[in-house]
Structures are given as structure tokens and as C-alpha cells.
Amino acid sequence: MRIVLVDDNEMDMFINVKLLESGSLAKTISTFLDPEEAISHIGSGEADAVIVDNQMPIMSGYDLLSTVIKTVPTVPAMVVLTATVTEDLTNKYKELHNGIHLLEKPLDVVALRSILL
Amino acid sequence: MNKQYILYVDDEEPNLVAFRAIFRREFNVLTATSAEEGRQKLDDNPEVKVVISDYLMKGITGIEFFESILEKHPHLIRIILTGFADQTAMLDSINKARVYRFLSKPWNEHDLRQTILSAIELYDARKKIAKHQEDLKHSYEALNHFIHKSSNEMRSTLVSMHGIVRLAKLEDDPQKMAEFWPILEKGIMQIDLQLRNIIEHYESDQRVGVNSPINFEETIERCRAALESFQDFNNIDINVQSSCSENFHQDPFRLQLIISNLLNYVGEQVNPEKNRIQLDIEIIETQGGVQMMFTDDGIGIENEQLTGLFELILSKGSSQDISLYLVKQAVENMEGTIEVTSITGEGTSFNIFIPNNKTNSYAHRTG
Question: How far is CA B243 from CA B233, B283, B354, B367, in A?
């Protein structure tokens, strides 16, 4: 599985990559600090799953996924990472797309596996 | 004292003339001969606090007139002048048009004056209460915001640290595991700094002024050293010029809070192209206090961010916006002032005035 990770925080990115590697879930992991670059990568059809941080300064996880849903013909599996999952946040993403899953940080690879497989 | 504005509405011109003749020295008297004109005068003069209306006018009663202005001018105090006493109609209308007082016509100058004066008093008292309520609501919201923001920031740091622990558990090689300790330590320091901010904020708010002479060079150096033990702080060059004498007395705790939070903020303003930041601090003793100027050559602050700079804003999840809130609070607690100017790409300048708290008797003794 080709997984795309988007997070503006380098420390979290480092952690998530290591955790993903430990889960041997991904064939490739592409990391993006810049959401715009992530979108064009996903647009080229090279992602099976995208994992995004909810809170990013320039473009939030929500804005990023909205753009992906609008512009990409085959939408990959979508997972949002956030420090705290609240009901409001869950509803907001459910309204955007029914297939979006929210996971609390730090990334739980077992939970991720059951979502993606 | 400023003359207060009152409006008198009556369709009989001679009544208006008499009223004006008597009261124009004490009040700013506006008059109108119809409900229509009365409404216009109210719209044009928001300073009006009390409106007096004749009860029986052509085509409209004073009560109906009051009802018509209730929605637009709810805070006005309303007085009715009436030539006859239909008590049931009066009682009914007190509720409908929220009339403050009924006075009988022809009016007696003394009674009317007293009624107007107490109406103005009532108006001012209500305004004051409304203002207090607004302030209270505002600080409650700000506090809630502060708690929410701090909790969110500390949780996201904790969550990253949790991730590190999870990684460390997967690691068998002690050499590699050792790489995780500094990252964990950094997280602990970040949370500690935030908790210290909250504690300092509380303490700064509760303190009753402690006064001692301030040595600015020493204080600034102490703040810098304390920050350095927490974070990477060696890309900031600080140049201090102080012409402040021993004569300046203030609360050292609050001054430290101001200086260290400003230094912390400036540390976040480093222009990535230069990778260093120059901070000039100038302290000048002035009439009644000191003027502190913090000028840096950092990235500067966008215009639209300048207005809310000292507010608690939940935005990019960084800790420095708390810094400036703390600075503002401390400055205000000392009854000082703070101003900020900034040019994007060139730098920011904070200008702070702090009053001298040295008591007069003490000043006399030391000359």
C-alpha cells in the first residue's frame, strides 16, 4: 500500500513514519510538510491512502481533504490525525465525506491497519 | 462638567419655549413638535439620555411615541407630562412603553428638574452596569479561551511525546533508544514553560505591588539566561542601553515577566534569510516612569495581526501569542501602557511605559 503522510510538524512526521514502518503496512511512504505538494502527488494517482494532520497552519487537514475530494478522480482512503477527537470534529469530517476516519495521536498502527485493510 | 442632553417633545410650541428658557442653562435641551421630529432628533443625537413627552399630541399619544422608539433606543429614560390623570391608562402604559415617571401639567420647575436629574442618574447607573457585564463576559470568554488554548497546546506536545515512547518501546538497540531522550526532554520543557506561564499569569494578577529599585541590565540578562536554559536562544543578539537610575522602583517580578515574554516573542521572529535577530533595548527615564523600547530586525508582523496581537487567540497552535497577552496583562497591572509598530520584513518595535512606583516620602528622604 502506498501511503501519503501530511504533517507540518517535523517531530510528529518523524514519529509517524517510524510507527508506520514498524507496522509494515506500507509499501511506500511519501511525506509532505507542504499540503499543496501533497495534493498534486495524490492527484497523480500515486496514493492508496492519505493520512493528514488536522491542525496545520496554512491549510488545515479539512481544507486539504476537501480539495482532494473535489479534484481527484479516484479518492484514496482518508485518515485524519488529531490530538483530541471531539464530536464536532467527527461530524464535520463525516459531512465532508463518509469514508473519512479520525484517529487520535500518536498513531495507533493496529487501529490504522483495521481501517485500511 | 459637560451638559447632559435631553429631548422634550410637545406639539404646543409655547411649552417648548418655556421649557427651553428654564432648562437650557443646565442641560443641552433638544425639542421637537411632533413624534416624527422627535425620532429624527434621537437618531441624530445619540448623546440624549432622557426624553420627555407630552401625553396628548395631535394624532399620537406620548405613550405611543415611546413605544415607537423602544426598540431603537432601549436605554433612554422616558418621562410623560400629562394634563389629566387617567390612572388605569397610565398604569397600563407604564409596562408597555416603560415610562420612568409621570408628571402632571402644568409642571412645577423644581419637581421636573429633580425628575430629570434622577433620570440621568439612572441612565448612567444602567450604562455602568451594562459596561461591567460586558467586561465580565469578555474576561470570562478570554479565560475560557486561554484554558482551551493552553490545554490544546500541552496535549499536542504530550501526544508527540507519547509517540516517542511508543517508538522507544519498539527499539531494541540501546544506542538508538538514547536518541529519544533529548526529544522527550524538549517536550517536557515545552509543557513546563506553558505551565509556568499560567502560574506566572495568576501570580502577576494577584500581586499587590512590591517595590524595589530596578537594575535593567541585570534583569534583562537574568531573563535571557533563564530562557536559554529552556530553548535554543543563541541566534539573538541583545544590545541594552539604559539611562535609568536607582531612582526607579517597580515590582521586579512583573518587570521580569514582561521582559522574558518579550524576549521569548522576539526569539520567534527570526528572519529565516538572516538566521539571526538583533534586538535593541533602550531604557529611558522620563517624567513619572521609564520608557522601554524593544526594537528588532525580525520578520515583522502583518498589519491585520497587529490589532489582535495582545489578545488570546487560538490560531496556529504556537505558544508565543500567550507571551504577548501576559506582557499586556502585566503592563496594565502596573498601570503602564504598551504600543507596537511593525513593518513586515523589517522588524517590530514595542514601546512600553512603566510608571515609577517610588513613594514620594521616600524620594524626599533620598533627595
Answer: 26, 6, 15, 19
